[in-house]
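Problem statement: downstream parser choked on a complex file, so we are re-checking the raw output for the UFG run. The parser issue turned out to be on our end (a line-ending mismatch), but while we're here, posting the original submission so the record is complete.
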Amino acid sequence: MKVFVAGGAGYIGSICVEELLNAGHEVTVFDNLSEGHRVAVDERAQFIDGCLSERQTTLDAVSSCGAEAVMHFAAFAQVGESMADPSKYFRNNVANGINLLDAAVEADVKKFVFSSTAATYGMPDAVPITELEPQKPINPYGESKLMFETILNWYHELHRLEFVAFRYFNAAGCSERLGEERRVETHLIPNVLRVALGQKEECRIFGTDYPTPDGTCIRDYIHIIDLAQAHMLALAPGKCGFYNLGNGEGYSVLEVIETCRQVTGQPIPAVQEPRRPGDPARLIACSQKAIDDLGWKPRYATLEQIVDSAWRWHSAHPNGYTG
Ligand code: UFG
């Protein structure tokens, strides 16, 4: 298919682009490089330096490339920043995203695939979390993604736009060529690996008094390539709806750090710090719906495989893309 990928220069988008191209799709990447990296865009893809805030540019770009499917990764995704600057999140993740939706309708695209998040669930009442769990976001980031889900559903009702929205749990790991590099890094695994690389003296454990077996937060880590595979399955005609993407296994912050020690062979000192505001104690996905409806089969489901792929990329690119 001809696939238009907004945000295809970012961490998740760039690796999905690589997998789409490997599977024989034709890809146009649309990205303003505010968070993404030009070198992360696969050479086989066409690249347009554009911003979703520019409505006419977005409409023209989607129609001129003959897109049959649109994938939307172009959003801000830092919870803490969204609490300090909600306007930035609602403006980009909601308002600018509507330009892309309108472009998809105008160009009569067959499928719209949207990156949503487990952050739409807020503090869940129970784990594992199914798609039927109430969505009660606790920060503007999660709220902005939930608002876009709602809008997407209306576009489906009113314009017959077929969509798949994936609620990602903790995307992690790297491909051989592409990795995780952000201008401001807040995520656990890349920060812990920086210590293993000798770029930081110690990693930080945010909160040791949660109601979990070792007192640290539990998350469900999903390999980026498994996540990308789900996006390709979503392109099949007739697939439509909301899907969780996770492995159904939870690992605590201490378990992640210990796995990083084993994979890297480095001691990785860690310091205990107070809780980070807004962190739920436990987020674990039930992804049975994606397995049953889409035929999704995660291939790199263990934390060791995920950390190992991340370590291979980070140790080969100690200065990220800029190096
Ligand atoms: N953590 C630390 N030290 C760090 C970084 C993180 O202890 O240096 C802890 C956090 O407090 C949290 C856990 O590690 O308990 C995971 O934190 P991340 O920042 O790696 O990821 P989050 O779970 O906060 O968020 C990610 C995505 C969100 C998504 C969420 C869904 O960034 O977009 O997963 O599970 F909503």
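For whoever reads this later: The pocket of UFG is lined by residues 77, 117-119, 169-170, 186-188, 191, 203-206, 217, 219, 253, 276, 279, 283 (CB under 6 Å).
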